[in-house]
Automatic annotation (TrEMBL), chain A:
Family annotation (PANTHER family): GLUTAMYL-TRNA(GLN) AMIDOTRANSFERASE SUBUNIT A, TRANSAMIDASE
A single Gene Ontology CC term: mitochondrion
Keyword Signal: no
EC number(s) recorded for this UniProt protein: 6.3.5.7
Protein name per UniProt: glutaminyl-tRNA synthase (glutamine-hydrolyzing)
Amino acid sequence: MEDRIAAYITRTREKALEQARAVDRQIRNGEKISPLAGIPVAVKDNICTDGILTTAASRMLAGFVPPYSATVVKRLEAAGATLPGKTNLDEFAMGSSTENSAFFTTRNPWDTGRVPGGSSGGSAAAVACGEAVCALGSDTGGSIRLPASFCGVIGFKPTYGAVSRYGLIAFASSLDQIGPFSRDVTDCALLLNAICGHDPLDSTSARFDVPDFTRFLVNDIRGMKIGVPEEYMAEGINSGVREVVVKAIALLESLGASVEYTNLPHTEYALSTYYLIAPAEASSNLARYDGVRYGFRAAKTSDVMDMFMKTRSQGFGAEVKRRIMLGTYALSAGYYDAYYLKALKVRTLIKEDFDRAFEKYDLLVSPVSPTTAFRCGEKTGDPLEMYLSDICTISLNLAGIPGMSIPCGFVEGMPVGLQLMGKHFDEGTLLRAAYTFEQNSDYHRAFPVL
Amino acid sequence: MTNYETVIGLEVHVELKTRSKIFCDSTTEFGGEPNTHVCPVCLGLPGVLPVVNKTVVEYAIRAALALNCQIAGFSKFDRKNYYYPDMPKNYQISQYDLPIAGHGYLDIDVNNEVRRIGITRLHMEEDTGKLVHQGTITTTPYSLVDYNRAGVPLVEIVSGPDLRSPEEARVYMEKLKTIIQYTGVSDCKMEEGSLRCDANISIRPVGNEQFGTKTEIKNLNSFKALYRALSYEVERQTGVLNKGGRIVQETRTWDEREGVTLPLRSKEYAHDYRYFPDPDLVPMIIDPEWVEDIRRSLPELPDARRERYMQEYGLPGYDAGILTSTKELADFFESCVSAYPNPKAVSNWMMGDLSRLLNAGGVELTACKIKPAQLASLLQLMDEGIISGRIAKTVFEEMFASGKDPGDIVKEKGLVQISDKSAIMAVVEDVLAKNPKSAADFRAGKERALGFLVGQVMKTTRGKANPELVDKLLKEKLLQEKL
Ligand SMILES: [Zn+2]
């Protein structure tokens, strides 16, 4: 299976067995075990694991073994989950297809000629084909939701600040958020229980009362007020996808929710705002990869500046370099106000769009992506075309709100994801709607035939 | 020829002596084997995040309040981006447009005139590591990096362009050091780099409002270097303008050995730092109550203390200034005066013998073996006539060397003053008998001969004879015999 899907950069069979044996011992001793005990949860390879290779799918970090684990990894270990391996991604999580991995491309289990989506493509594919029960990914502009949608699994991006970023190799710090992949909503809630909560090691992690997310697993959305942003259903959305999504919305309505079309007027600026803020932060976050302390260092350099330049030009892939240059430019003297500062202002407007919408609605729904999984190589030549895959997902990162992709149907045999969007720290409403949808449909039971 | 006025502004970096670094738990201790005071956070490893050390913010506010600054209600950290191998992240976390404090001032005394120097801003930032070159910077085949200092908290204190001479700059720097030391937030050791200074300097024709083109001088590692480099630069700029030339805006470095400032290659400093708010750190909302708590906890600062010494103790301004120049000295003085309430006498001993011995031995007051109470009891012994002033100086040196109580030293060495009239008279008679010529000289009106005779008596008693008594008895005897 792995030969055909290539979901993992590193497999940690021994570690997983060792962890599983520990759980076995607990069971034999009659100890109380957590719901995640012994469950294989794959981890995206931009999340640090103590003593285990962590590459962010970059040549730059080939051979990097961190001496610490991300907070989420520690929490999963504490809950007894096992680690089957580290999954593939677009280099430094920059991409929408996993084709930007410096090592290899992961394949979509529903059609190995197609991409799994990205950047957390390895995690989504591993869960879709059963190589892991659950997985962790990271989402900066849709990197959990898009591959979940393309691979027909559940992907959840929590509210910014709900999950610690400590140990997540930063792409864009104000947008990055770790979240789970799973095959059903129940597992998703269990994973959220494990990973959410304040972390003193992350200043941006919120102090909030973490609920038991399983209490939102209720098959009832009667009276729930759902808004459908027209901008997310406009032209550009593939007609097959739109049809599937409209049907899914109709199902929600038939289950007792009230549905209305609404507007998020600043949506058209989201993509350009995102492509200023994210690269700006990335240009600074990725400055540390210079060959001095760890990771890749170019050979045959004449002095320290030469070493920096050769290391970075050889160590980073094309998309990463493109975004570093974009971000450096956006922050440069003379351009800062026109680009970066302006983007921050528009970001506020986008956030206010959502605030206004959530005065009227409990939940917003939309497609996750304008299309289903595209063919490998189809969009690699045109970065702008690739960026458009995230058109429905990036606004949520800009606003910091939670978003979820749930399987809601197929177009020509390829899965379609329905995006649920909620208020800050209102993960519960998303889970309730997703659970109700799941209990009244069977899309999540479909399994790719390989 | 045009007369020029000098305009100087200083940017001073002060290392805060918190126990741990600004964004992690690593120790700030000075020294240590290279790369032993580090952790993943201050090494900037992938995925790690900074968390602000609250004590750093508190210390920054403390320093700012002592410099009469206003504390911001809202402040944030920014990233200053540039590539240099001593920076683990290739950006420095600093503060850009919303520093923790600003709009302060500091008063300096120059030629008996008080000058108020503005403090434009005070902000927090992290220190960088250190490059260790093999040989000189230009010939080194490779360099090593020590990140022990990376992440050590600093405050940068920027003065207004208010200083008008190298002397004023030196006095400002000394005063700043004194005030910061008083607040207890830094050792301000220039030799360990916990106090560093860069200077901006320009000159303009006297009467001109507009500033001249400035140069920035780096590598000013001592008060002397600051003074000499600025003096050199005034001369250099004056020379350039007098020859009809133009000042080039540039960064120059002070070459201590040659005594000149030299331009740094401009490329090295032509940075666009691309400042932007650090998304890993949330903005700080500073609680005014907290600021007031910190204000209340500040010690009496040097200016106020000096004033009090003049009023309360009646000390001359000069004495008061020196005694309050460090908190340790002033604390020592007050502790001594509380046990021996003669401020002028204490002041004389501290500014005289104590400071002489400290300087000669290169000893810091904090490491001095003499405790304030011991100096007080020495003075007491003199007042009570148990030892003479001359013996007191010997005892003081012994105290300085051993840390013993003056009473014990006097006892052990048998230094108690001889005030027994008949015992001294016996010696006096003996000396006069042995030195008839000197006695005759005195009687013939040569007053100076008396000094010799006193000396002989003191010598015979090994200094222990009460000098006043010796004087009195000698005169008595000589005059008696004259009659
Ligand atoms: Zn550290």
